[in-house]
Amino acid sequence: MRSEVFDILLKTTGYQYVPYTSSLLQRDSNLFFLARGDKSKYLVIVGESAVCGLFRGIYERSIRNLEENQKLKIAPTTHENLQILRRLFPHLNPSPCGLKKSFGTGDRLGIATPAHVKAFEGKDIFPFFAQQSVRELERTRRNWEDVMDSAIWGCFEAGYKGKFGADADHVKDPDKLVEAVECGYTMFTIDPSDFVRNTSTMSPEKKKEIYGSISKRSELERRYLNRKYEIEGQVLIFDEDSLVDAIVTYFDALKFVREMYETLKTYKSDGFDFEVSVDETDTPTSPLAHIFIVEELRRMGVEFTNLALRFVGEWQKAIDYIGDLKKFEREINLHAAIARHFGGYKLSLHSGSDKFSAYPAFSQATEGLFHVKTAGTSYLEAIRVIARKAPELYRRIHRFALERFQIERRSYHVTTDLSKIPDLDSIPDEKLEDFLNANDSRQLIHITYGAVLTARNEDGSYLFRDELYRVLMENEEEHYECVGKHIRRHLEMLGTKR
Ligand SMILES: [Zn+2]
Fold first, then answer.
1. Which chain residues have CB less than 5 Å from ligand 1, an ion?
2. Pick from 325, 396, 311: nearest CA to 356
3. pLDDT for the residue numbered 320
4. Would you call 169 a catalytic residue per the annotation?
5. Residue 180 pLDDT more than 60?
6. Domain closes at, from 60, 88, 116
7. Domain tally for the chain?
8. Considering the domain boundaries, does residue 54 fall inside one?
9. pTM for the whole thing?
């Protein structure tokens, strides 16, 4: 019966739908799998009519040759249908990760999860297949629900039965947080950067003024001033300067984190992963600042599982680490030692794409107590497929990206030099892919994704979007292969075992 079911679909529908055999799931005498139609994917159910009746479909008929009352139903991959499928198969629901080593694979296009699943095969690392930041949601005009649904349909397609998480990334306001809770996210990354103050560019007078306005300052001084921490052989002491810096920089930010945490506790009754991310600051987080953040969060009763710091060097989007690796190694060793000293949380590394040279040190120092996030790198691999298979479309995207770059770069920290990108017209089709291997053009394409995915013609139709998805659908295997290989390389560089 199990394998016959694919033939039933093919024959009954005149080969209009092609099954993804990996997706087959069974519950009692009912079978469920995903199939590909002309333009989109569909959920296929072969089973009792009562079970088929749970789903809203576009096609339903009784099947001869099958037991009585059996039906074939074809249903669109909607949110409602997925909710029912998730109730029948609880492994399709995300769950918290805790302190296991973990890796998040952002998927801006919402079609890469099957490739991500493949990349994780046989690796001892917990995947976050649903992960998107609020900024990415805005740029791609997606929402939490869509990101979650795409990832779960992808798990279903690939036949993934393991655990996975869903990370609502870089959340900066309570409304977005509550929305993510309601959508069933299991990890919440709070970004307090609107409240972080940059002391490195502040005048001493200004710093003094702000410090003076913090009513809790004498209490904080009593708690921390001259306090000594012995961290694996190193002694760290808060002197007046370092304490004032830590307080001025982070005090309000941590207050905000606590408010967000309390909101979360009110709305979410079951367990979750909680990340505090101060990675998008102007200057690296000092070891003492790290200590201050942890001590204060603990004191306020914020139970966090992950902490994302800003590390030394350049962590630019889509390219390898820029900076002194030795210096980074020393720094990460100390931060990891601090994390071990306090215990109970992982260090989180953002902008993971594609920090291959920094991964080994990061993985070793943290001894597996880490989380890594990549976001845009899967999109770039998708564009690689466009460059190979639809050169003319790639050229249009590239030209458009050049026009939009100055606007789009504003919210990213990058040092992209457009003058280093070779003239598009001088590059033959078979070499277009090279643009995705060079830093400046990689960032050009990386940063402009929002504009590319949402730009419209005067008549309201999409400039690139529909065509881009069509090409990727037509070349699905190659797309999965490209993305899977790339993410696998990330996991391998992090030293995750087979
Ligand atoms: Zn980040």
1. 279, 350
2. 325
3. 93
4. yes
5. yes
6. 88
7. 2
8. yes
9. 0.96
